[in-house]
Amino acid sequence: MILLDTAPVPPRDRAELIRAAMLSVSVPKEVTLASDADATWARMEFWDLGGPSLFTSASSSFQLARGRRHLTMEGPALVALAVQTGATAGFEQLGQEHQVRPGQLMLNDLTAAYRYGWRGDGGSCAFQLPHELLGLPVGATRAAAPRLAASPLYELTRTHLAQLHRHRGELEHDPSARALGRATLELVRALILSAAAPAAPAAPDTAAELRERAIAYIDVHLSNPALTPAAIAAAHHVSVRQLYKVFALGRLSLEQTIIGLRLEAARRELARPGHPALTVSEAARRCGFANLSHFARRFRQRYGISPARWQRQHRDGRAASSRSAG
Question: In whole angstroms, what is the distance from residue 288 CA to residue 307 CA?
Answer without folding.
Answer: 15
